[in-house]
Structures are given as structure tokens and as C-alpha cells.
Amino acid sequence: MIASLILCCCLAAPTLSFVPVATVVFPLGVGSSSSSSQLRFVNEGHPQDEVFAVTDSKTEMPFPWKCLDINKDGKVDFHDLAFIVTTALDANQDGLVDEKHVQAALSVSLLLWMLMVSPVQAKGGGGGHGGGGGGHSHYSGSMSTFDQPEYDPYRRPNRREANRMVQLRPFDPNACADLPVEGEVVDVLVDDWRGNYVPGVVNDVQEGSCSFKTDMVGGGKVFQYPASRRLTSNRNWQNWVAPSIVAGAVGFVGLIALEEEWNSEWERNFDDEFLQSTGGETKAAATEIETFPPPCSGSYVGTTRESDGMNQQVQSDLKFYSDGEISGDGFDSEDGRYSVSGAWKENKVRWIERYGLRFSVTVRGEVLSDGSIQCRFTSTRNVRGKFTIQQK
Predict the structure, then answer these.
(1) What is the four-CA torsion angle of 219, 224, 226, 230, rounded to 10 degrees?
(2) Per its record, what are the GO molecular function terms (predicted)?
């Protein structure tokens, strides 16, 4: 659900008077009574123009929004949303969001939709209007348990007037999600075993506590129930939290699985191309050496981008031999010194960095036209990443 909201905000932001950035401004002070404490979308090209108010909460930024503030500047703007969406879709960390990523995102979205929508549809079939007894239960002798359906405490069959709170503040986490209006007739659950409902007239609506009172006006003679009852509506954040957690967990697991598959496929394709013309040998043929001379030996430096969040400065002293071998050593700012041994062929390189007996790193890369080497790596500690090194 949050991913869908992020994507919608990213798509909608450029349409705000065609300005470069649309910003969601959050209050950071607690207890402020000024109008500036509202959460609002602002046209940054014309800061005086408030596009629309989202909430009048006088507390600090709500937790779901705080998670989206990537750069911790107290606001969720287009830069934060674009970074989240790009990072989520770029599962193989190649810096590009291509057709394959979009197909994977659609697959994950379909899975989430199936998980989120199907249970609601199954639940919606239970219970009938008035005294109807929809739903069913059955006894399983092997399990010795009852499959008892769940019913909502009340339903709004004649929702002619939309909820004022939801209409005015659809994104306010503290707004009542489904609070009836004064005088509205709702169906109230009086038998949670059979799913029997009777109509009740709403009165004494309290928006502060999201509660209301109902006076029963109908029903059968068999069931005994109170003449009046006080019911409570969920707040928006209560309806957001559970779906967001489920969607986030399923999406996270799905993206991790897709990322692992993409990385493994890329490594297999690289190795197949690397070894194809030499029949599995790592040394290049003499004719290939004439067409592709060895890369320049020397000291190369760069910065890694790693899956564990670390960014390390690296320096590798590499020697490229005419027979296709690579040797050398290097140093990175976190793990210390390492030795290098490997091979090159045409414009591709592959070597192993050994950090003593602790662990090793397999590096696969391509020599670019400017002499720099663009690489991806995988360590025996299951850390992946990429880097580009250039000769000093």
C-alpha cells in the first residue's frame, strides 16, 4: 500500500504547476497551535501556494511518513520518493530501471493484490442485512476445531453521505476511517455466531474518540440484544498499519529473491562469455591478444558500493600479462590488504581477492574505453556490490 502511495506521489508531483519539486512539509514541533503545524503539499516554485492540506495534527511527523524521509530534513519531497522507488525497482543494482525490473514489480504487485484482496472478499460474504444469517461454520472430525467466520461489528448499507473526516482529511492518520453520521441507519451485529444484524439509528457521534451510539429499531423475537449500543470506528492509521506491514514484508522478500536470481544469472552469463571462445581455458589466444592488447598495468583506485551499506575506498595494484593472467595486491579501508589473482580476455576481467584466510571476493568486470574498469563483486560472506576503479 505504501509503495503504491509513493509511486502515485512520484507520478503526481511533476504535475503541480510543472514545478521541479513538490514537497510534503511536516511539523517538527510538539504542541504548536499555529496553522503551520499542518501537513501540506507545497509548490516549491511558489512556496506561498499551498496545494492542499493533509492533516492538522499538532504532533511530530507520523511514523509511516518519517520512514520516507530518507535525507532526514524533516520533509518528504520528490527526491526522497524518487530514491525509494528507484531503489525498490533496481533490484540488481545496475543503476537502471529497465523493462525487466518493471515486469518484476508488476509480478510482486499482483502477488500483494492477491494476498490483500482475497481475504477481504472471503470475509465480505458472511452475514446478511436485517436478520439474515449468512456465512457458515463446519466441524472437522480430524482437526476437532470449528471454522467460525468473523463479522464486522457494524455495516453501512445506505452510505448516502460520505464520512466528513475521511472526505476532508483522507491522509490524516488520526482521522476516523468509517464513522457514520448523525441519524444514519447502520446494520449492527447482534449475533456473532450466526452473523445476524439488526438496523440501528446512529446518534451521539464523537469524532474525538471515533465512537457513536446506536438505537436498535428492528430484529427478530428469537434474539435478545440491548436496546442501544456504543460502537467504535477505526482510525486511518489502524487501517494502514497491517496492510503496510504485510505488503512491505512480502515485497521485501520478493525483491530479495529476484535480486539473488538476477545476480546469479548475470554471473553465469558473464562466466559463459568469458570462457566460451577458449574452450574453458582462462588464458587468451595469441590472435585475441593482437586484437585486444592487455589493459594497462598500474595502481587503480575507486570506491565500492556494497549491499551491506558499506562504502569503502579501494586501491588495487594490478599487473596484466600478455598470456591473459592477472596478478597483484590491494588495500581497502575496512578489510585491509588482499592479494589478486585472475585472468583477462578481450575487454573482460575476472579475478579473486583473498583477504588471508578470512574470506575471498570474486570480481567480474569490463574494461571501458577510457581505461577504467567497471566491476561487480561477490564475497564468501554473501556481500555483493559494485565499483569502478581508474588508474592513478
Answers:
(1) -70
(2) calcium ion binding
